[in-house]
Amino acid sequence: MSVNKRQIKRWLKDLWNSETLDKLKEKTKALTILKKDTKRTEKWIPSRVYRNSLELTGQILRSQIERKEIYEFIVNHPCTIIYSENYLANHLEKSPLFILNIQRQIRKQLKKGQIEKDYFKAVKPDFNADIFITSADDSVHNGQF
């Protein structure tokens, strides 16, 4: 698992930018998109582990797309920090829980005295879980893992 964690942490740091998030808006597998932007430096890692780690990295980054949209809306409309998350959820057509979490995040920044307008500076996705996915492999259900 440590190889998986280390690799994903490194990729998250390297791929954390607006260009990557824009590419990940496509409906194809994250693996297909990110393979073009990464170099496979550690050849000793089995290809299935590599592919599935890259797919999980893409899933983590994809989860940030909607959060980024909400964050930028709230930062650009400061009064929305105090709005009900349900009201904003209806207005933005997003999850109230996402909105509530992001409102709390921005309120914490406000207590420190400054709100970071750039989402990529305000948020740094991290990975510490002992998770290994197999969704990058199409034939896992056939017992080929």
Index terms:
0% strand, mainly alpha, 145 residues, single chain
Q: Globular, elongated, flat, extended or rod-shaped: what is the shape?
A: elongated
Please estimate the helix content: 55-70%
| Beginning-to-end CA distance, first to last residue | 16 Å
Q: Helix- and strand-based class?
A: mainly alpha
Characterize the biggest β-sheet: none
The domain tally reads 1
- How large is the radius of gyration? 18 Å
Order of helices and strands: HHHHHHH
Percent of sequence in beta strands: under 5%
Tally the helices. 7
Total number of β-strand segments? 0
Task: Point out poorly predicted stretches.
Answer: none
Mean pLDDT equals 88
In short:
By secondary structure, the chain is mostly helical.
Structure characterization notes:
Helix 1 (2-15) crosses helix 4 (47-76) and helix 5 (85-92) crosses helix 6 (96-112). It contains seven helices and no strands. The chain is 59% helix and 0% strand. It is elongated. It has one domain (2-142). It is mostly helical.
